[in-house]
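dumping this here so i dont lose it again. seq + smiles for flavin mononucleotide
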Amino acid sequence: MASSPQFRRSPELRAANPVLSGNPLKLGVFGSNWIGLCMTKLPGGLTPTWEASREIGRMADQAGFEAIIPVSRWKSIVPGQPRHRSAQALETFTWATAMALSTQRAAVFATCHVAAFPPVLAAKQAATLDQISGGRFGLNVVAGWNAREPGMFGATMLFEHEQRYGQAAEWMEIVQRAWTSEEEFDFDGDWYTIGGAYTAPKPAQAPYPVVMNAGLSDYGRDFAARYSDMAFVAIQGEDPAATAPELVASYRAHAREKYDRELAVWTHAYVIHEDTVELAQATADEMYEHADLEFVDAFMAGTLATSNVLTEEVLQVIRREFVLGSCGFPLVGSAETIADGLELLARAGVDGVVLTWLDYAAGIRRFQAEVLPLLEERGLRVPVDAPDGRLVASSR
Ligand SMILES: Cc1cc2nc3c(=O)[nH]c(=O)nc-3n(C[C@H](O)[C@H](O)[C@H](O)COP(=O)(O)O)c2cc1C
């Protein structure tokens, strides 16, 4: 008798997720569900429409990028200005569903605020998205930093890291159990009391989808090491290139030593690509001269309020980096110097870099034409039309 069709579920689907297989240096696009990550008033920035976001996702997918990752934003960053353009953000699970159906190869992520979603709801949405995308889904868990947001959900911003990550840990335990348990289960913790939880279908990727976590503190690092496959870190400071190897090594070592787990490390970088380094620096200067000051000040104040790593002094030094790309790693120059920057990150042990531009569509087009061939020459990536359209195995 023929068996009835089943929802997909296998470890092979997980192993084939492009962020876990593929090139030595993986690439992604970041923040296209929002207004992009530049805080400048210079024209040419991202129009916050679904059509613009879809175009960027499709271009990245066709260029062979492995990941499309949204930011999670719920309201304006600028207090007293509810209609500031930073309020324009597409909700990430619904966005990711449409993005998965608009693309063919890349992993598509939803960035999920712990405080905004009951864990069983998030588990169900993720499982549904993983089925719809054929195992290309990834969950980016964020504890959150915009203190003005949780109130909209009847929640309180947890400023104490022990509390914030205590809640996040319980949330993640429940999500993982919902993804795997074949029985209804109860959970009785400090933050959640749940009775008779169950969800089906299960995710396509077994035992569960790729999980990423973006945090900066030691608590964030521990959470990533314990629960995620990919730590999403900011490589920042006065000399980010110099700090990268140690930072990346510390994440990996923590995961290995404390949890006996392998952890990939990803970061984000902003790209300002011109014919020469001088021209790119001039563009960067122009973007900074037109900084949206209220935006950047509010962004930095929000970051300061919830971080136990960043200080006022550090933030003032890296203010320009916030304006140019929300403090991503700087890739400012010609195709050659941008490739150098990416090679430096790869040699520092970074597994993947998600990119942002002022004008994403033009930026990806130029990156594909001029930078990707250099990364291929340097053995960091293979051409997108490699055998059977999939990216070939990593040499790492
Ligand atoms: C690369 C990166 C991306 C992040 N994306 C988001 C986001 O989309 N939404 C959000 O509320 N917080 C985001 N965060 C903030 C984290 O949730 C986190 O709270 C913040 O980095 C402070 O780290 P800590 O919680 O470990 O102190 C991001 C952080 C990093 C490093």
